[in-house]
Amino acid sequence: MAIRLKQAGIQDFVIFERASDLGGTWRDNTYPGCQCDVESNLYSYSFSPSPTWSRTYAPQAEIWDYLRACAEKFELGKHIRYEHEVQSATWDDAAARWRIETSKGPFSAGVLVAAVGPLSEPSLPAIPGLDEFPGPHFHSANWDHGVDLTGKRVAVVGTGASAIQLIPRIQPQVTQLHLFQRTPPWVLPHRDRPVRGLARALYRAVPGWQRLVRSSVYWSRELFVIPFMKPSPNSVPERLARGHLEKQVADPELRARLTPRYAIGCKRILISNDYYPAIQKPNVELVTDDIREVRGRSIVTEDGVEREVDVIILATGFRITEMPFARRVTGREGRGLANEWAGSPSAYRGTAVAGFPNFFLLLGPNTGLGHTSVLVMVEAQLRYVMGCLAHLERSGMAAIEVRREAQDAFNAGVQSRLRDTVWNAGGCRSWYLDPTGKNTTIWPGMTWPYVRQLRRFDPPAYDLSRRPA
């Protein structure tokens, strides 16, 4: 967003960052094996490709370096206010300004953009006795590098994307690893490979070649989503996942415990070549009984079995649909965003919310994806927001706000298209669904219709307000 503002000649903006460095998800998630599950050439900005990726799927450290390099390349440093946590943002209707309280003092702004990211607030399970556990215990997003796992008895709670990356890395170090699985994931083979020097040299010499590679990756992933729009037990992705499981797990009993009972895509699809081999090692136990409590140095499951552990690692995901930042945003007439949503977030095109003038969301409700890079959605939103700001500037007005009927009509269409997809009718309870049971996370299908919708700003969907006297 900052880069697009600068490219448009706008310099009067700041970025509030609560941490001491930039990077968000890719700064915080430093657990062993952390890696993107989208190809590097697509999981990067189209306007700033990198010819230096070492692998087709970039590891965490390289993505973090890439983000910092982008900030330096586009000279964003002077605009970033580090260690400025936004505590509240309140719309002042009389002044047509946002009043922003941060941990380092107050600010005001004409426009507020929430680019907080959905994978920013770890989800911690309510396990009785966990807080009293005397040994180290931490979430995978807050990895404690001061804890040496060598020779330890380790419990990993969760079998999501983070867990299947870290388990193969820590398994050789530990004496015993207890993996607590609530729901088995669908796992596809990983196609990661090194990017050779010749390919990197070609990217540098012929930038158009890298753009062509990016385009081919994009369209192959667009085609991949088609089976999920109408779930079928005989879909190509599910056959691939079953074949991968059968090839890597010979024991029929273990294979049955690792086989999901829902359609592939209903939960996030995972990719790994070393997860199944790791959990078949002699020092790994797959536990499928629910956890009842943590008792002293032990984890007790519902079947009454007590397992002593030295370290507990929570690979339990993030608070996606809750969007904790919403409790800090107040719009017209003192309406809080969290109260407005009432547990079920909604926005016009995932970007603007009725009752909240001059306020925009990046990666807001129903802009998440299960098949391709979210940066496709982000870049579409950036173009749209810049069009909105240009319209506001041309009008000479003070505030712009999406009309509620436009927002309601857009979301009714999204929910209608989601109804029969795997993300709604796949037979599972996933983090795509909010507390009311509505899918407020996933975009229903291919991304190109969304990109086309947001190519131009649509003034009829908005109301303008005059500048106060």
Verbal overview:
- There is one protein chain.
- The chain contains 15 helices and 20 strands.
- The longest helix is centred in the C-terminal third of the chain and has 22 residues, at 374-395.
- The protein has two domains: 2-119 and 319-465, 3-Layer(bba) Sandwich (FAD/NAD(P)-binding domain); 130-186 and 232-265 and 267-314, FAD/NAD(P)-binding domain (3-Layer(bba) Sandwich).
- Helices cover 30% and strands 16% of the residues.
- The two termini are 31 Å apart.
- It has a five-stranded parallel sheet with strand order 7-16-8-9-12, with no helix packed on it.
- The chain is α/β, with parallel strands linked by helices and 469 residues long.
The gist of it:
With 469 residues, the protein is α/β, with parallel strands linked by helices. The protein is 30% helix and 16% strand. It is globular and about 70 Å long.
